[in-house]
Amino acid sequence: MKSILITVEGPIGIGKTSLARELSRAFELQLLEEIVYENPFLGKFYENIAEWSFQLEMFFLCNRYKQLQDIHSKYLQQNQSVVSDYNIFKNTIFSKRTLSDDNLNKYLKIYDILTENLPQAHLVIYLTASIDTVMKRIAMRDRDVERSMDVAYMEHLIADYEEFMDAFEKQHPDIPVIKFDCDHLDFVHKPEDLRYVLERIEPKVKELTAE
User: Fold this and answer.
1) Would you please indicate which residues are annotated as catalytic (active-site) residues?
2) Which residues cross the membrane (predicted)?
3) Which of 10-24, 28-42, 126-140, 185-199 has the lowest mean pLDDT?
């Protein structure tokens, strides 16, 4: 069987990590979870985006770079498939929203250098939802650093994801994207919704690992 990398993506609070864990269990995949709340700039960022965005994004980029290097050598090259609760392309989505033009140009140059030879996803799971659903789920998990999150920032982020994913599918027709509308699905609390999601993903996992 061929080893593959599956990434789960979507806005903050939409359920990426929960779904990645379920996929890991269901399909016997190595799980990769991003380092988020260890980021020392996260709380400061939500309080003052302009002031702390560059520090925040550089921390995330360097940590994700190291994680993907490790999963490539320890798992993918050892014929072990991996599911991750992020795709490193998210760095460009967030940075284009938060960084000044000058810092963005510097950041994207570093991003291009670091990601040039990193493993790319064979399958992307994209979770979407309205701002109301996203904010309700963020409130339900009640994490300290997210309590000061700006609703307008989240609205822009959801729109940025939609725009990016539309372009991604056109630019990468060889990478399948499976999209789920989480306004109508709650795979964390409803077993029937989780079954539906897994049943949609399973045929593509089998197809990709059989190649």
Assistant:
1) 85
2) none
3) 28-42
H helical segments located in the chain: 16-27, 42-47, 49-74, 90-98, 101-115, 131-141, 151-171, 191-210
What values do phi and psi take at 6, rounded to 5?
Answer: -105, 135
Which of 4-18, 68-82, 139-153, 160-174 has the least mean pLDDT?
A: 139-153
Q: For the chain, which residues make up each domain, given as ranges?
A: 5-210
Question: Can you say which residues are annotated as belonging to the binding site for ATP?
Answer: 10-18, 137-141, 185-187
For the question of whether the overall pTM of this predicted structure is more than 0.85, the answer is: yes
Strand partners, 125: 8, 178
Residues annotated in a binding site:
10-18, 137-141, 185-187
- Smallest CA-to-CA distance from 50 within 61, 63, 59, 41 is with 41
Q: How many CA atoms lie within 13 A of 84 on its CB side?
A: 27
Structure tokens at 160: 């940025």
Give the Cα separation of 165 and 92 in Å (integer).
12
pLDDT at 211 (0 to 100):
66
Structure-token pair, residue 109:
């140059």
